[in-house]
């Protein structure tokens, strides 16, 4: 009897959930972190508000992740202005320009003064 080999036209299954394909990115030295900001620091900031008495781990995680996404978004938008000035480094004026030009950041107007 012949050994069963790969079926013609069939592909090997890809990586499953939580698995990385070989060569898909840099090796991860430890468990993957879902949030880049230190959750203990975020929790300390939340507890610094006198109106907050308790904060669940889920709430702290969501706040940390939302903060990361916000910083990423404003940095990308400000980087467009740095590129227009033929620079790779963000400057305060790039953030000011992004805040003035993008309606989503209107609540930040005057905060960098």
TrEMBL record:
Keyword set includes DNA-binding: yes
Family annotation (InterPro entries): CBFA_NFYB_domain (IPR003958), Histone-fold (IPR009072), Transcr_DNA_Rep_Reg (IPR050568)
Keywords in alphabetical order: DNA-binding, Nucleus
Record bears the keyword Nucleus: yes
Residue span, Transcription factor CBF/NF-Y/archaeal histone domain: 35-99
GO biological process, one term: DNA-templated DNA replication
Annotated region described as Disordered, given as residue ranges: 1-30
Function of the molecule: Accessory component of the DNA polymerase epsilon complex. Participates in DNA repair and in chromosomal DNA replication.
Binding partners and assembly: Component of the DNA polymerase epsilon complex consisting of four subunits: the catalytic subunit POLE and the accessory subunits POLE2, POLE3 and POLE4. Interaction with POLE3 is a prerequisite for further binding with POLE and POLE2.
Record-given protein name: DNA polymerase epsilon subunit 4
Species name: Falco tinnunculus
């Amino acid at each position: 009897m012949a050994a069963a080999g790969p079926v013609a036209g069939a592909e090997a299954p890809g990586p499953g959930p939580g698995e990385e394909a070989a060569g898909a990115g840099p090796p991860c030295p430890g468990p993957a972190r879902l949030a880049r900001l230190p959750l203990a620091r975020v929790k300390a900031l939340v507890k610094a508000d006198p109106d907050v008495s308790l904060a669940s781990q889920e709430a702290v995680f969501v706040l940390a992740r939302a903060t990361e996404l916000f910083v990423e978004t404003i940095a990308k938008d400000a980087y467009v202005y740095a590129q227009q000035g033929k620079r790779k480094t963000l400057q305060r004026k790039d953030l000011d320009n992004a805040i003035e030009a993008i309606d989503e950041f209107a609540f930040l107007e005057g905060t960098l003064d």
